[in-house]
Design brief:
Strand order of the largest sheet: 4-3-5-1-6-7-2-8
CATH topology of the largest domain: Alkaline Phosphatase, subunit A
CATH class of the largest domain: Alpha Beta
Structural class: alpha/beta
Number of strands: 12
CATH architecture of the largest domain: 3-Layer(aba) Sandwich
Number of domains: 3
Strand content: 5-15%
Number of helices: 26
Shape: globular
Mean pLDDT: 88
Amino acid sequence: MKKIKKIWQSPFIKNYIIFVFTFLILEIIFRSIENLSLISYNMLRIFIGINILAFIFSFISHFLPKLISKIFNLIIILIVSIYGLAELGFNNYLGVYVSLQSSSQAGAVTSYFFEYLRSFHWYYYLMLIPFIIILIYYIFFDKKLTLDMPKRQKNMQFFITKCFQCLLFVFLALIYFATLKLDFMQDKTSSTSSYHLFLKPVNPALVINDFGFIEFGLLDIKECLIPGPEFEKEIEYNPNTILNFNNSKPEEENIILPHTTIDNDNWKEIIENEKSTNRNTLNKYFISKEATYTNEYTGIFKNKNLILVMIESGSNIMINEEYYPNITKLYKEGYSFKNYYSPRNTCSTINNEFSNLTGLYTITNNCTAKAYRNNSYFESIFNLFNEAGYDTASFHDYTQRYYPRKTIHTNLGSQKYYGVEKLGIKYNWTYGDWPSDEDFIKSYLNILDETRTEKPFMNLLTTVTSHQPYTDNYQYNLLYKDDFPSEYPTDVRKYMSKIKVVDNAIGLLVDGLEERGLLDDTVIVLYADHYPYGIPQTHLNKVLDYDTSIDQNAENVPFIIYNPSLEAKTFEQYTGHINTTPTMANLFGLDYDSRIYIGSDVLDKSYKSLVIFDDASWKNEIAYFDASKNKIKYYTDKTYSDEEIMAINEEVNLKLKMSSLAIKNNYFSYLEKKLASYKVEPITEEDSNSEIDTNNNQDSSAN
């Protein structure tokens, strides 16, 4: 007993045990709440990591006076506890874990801070229990306080002790490193090794599952200061296997042709001369992709106008003929996509808007469209329609307070951008007191009257009325609230009131186009940026006929393509924002190279039905794979082998990584400039005469 007491009196040992105890309890509480496994090899790695961190903090702490040491310990434990609490809240509220890489979103988060706090479940505050236990221990059981420096052992004994501690630390570090490499410590169906995840912790959900939330926080800091390598292995490329497609369009109809526009010989030459590893990785990836082909839907909207309408916080609640007749009419009479998903991410609104316009995934846990606003994308939907001779413009009925859309849309190719000020409609700076989408559409139609030319037009409209919050008593929260069943949760009724304003706006748009004789020649596409994540999923379940809390069902939102000439049709393919641009390009018969999109034409006969979520999870009609837990759930009798799951995971992760690399390196601006150097300008009659005169002069000189 005396020996135990003597050991406990050692400042280093006592602090070490305190840190191990608190960190381990915090990880157990966190994983229990997040339904992550507590009995796995990952927990062994987490425990070893906790011991290393405890060693470091206790080593620092034991050099401090006792009072300062206690304060230091409590501060560290409190910071870790609050950080874990915040991560739980963010994942519950936004569907993602927060990262230093998403700090550009901080301004928006502060706007709905109290909404965020109100979303916390009571059991999240269990994360504060270890801190309270240690605080009570210090106050009532370890009362001795002093500002004196701790007594040190004799020189030789001190030296031996420190050597032993250093050896122990090295031993723990080696064991930890081994867990990153040993085969039995790896998830057999994961396409990303623990070692690479450690070096490049850009997928928070996977990192937290493998390393715990405490180590994720530290690795996140490391990634900001010292970014890890993008890839574990180089992209394989064989130039002899790249087919040279004939892109000329024959006069005969019903000829199936590949959607390619880039000359492969030029592209191969670019690869041969490129010195940058990252650029050539992208070149090799995109040139090697399989192209899509023309199909029965190709060009059915040739030369028609296109209006893309992104509905803020849309959901399948909108598909209700009694409450929302205008949206439901378009859904029932046009092309509707039953399994369209809008995955949440750090900046779901602007990031998903970006994915729709470019066919690229945004960077995991990064406000991509905002962070890389100065990038340009010649393959964007705006630029495709610009090349086809359309007038293009984008409209949004709010300011640039959160997202610099004027810059983003301009660099994506929008010829004109109309924010709320330019639209000339009433708005308020107060968060939650959003403008009216009805006023938005009225103003849009007036601008259309003033600016329309003989050219067809392509416009993007981004709404805002239905944005959260749904708990306060703002004008549109209350306007139609009493029109909906009283048994629905109040926040849902307020949301539905806002969506009613959106539905009215869609009615104004359709009627306005018809009055102007434009409806027959215009295609309207409706989709949502994300579901109303300010509302608990249990509340949404009161209205919807499926459980939104499982298998990322909450992300299932409407996608509608409408034109009066269409015969109503429902598509079952699993799809999402990533496929909008290539699908529209095919429907409108535009010239485009399908290989340079991460997304694909969803109507292509070879389309692989699959939707990919921000954390590399995926879903189709067969199964849902949860990447953060490395578990698969089947919906049919068909199952996948481990090899098939691995193959899908490799494809999913490659798409996410390539998209990320392309954005970080402004790849499409680079590729556009390289390809431009191969373009031969057509010789005009003036150039031809000039060349003849030059040749005559040369002949005269020779004579």
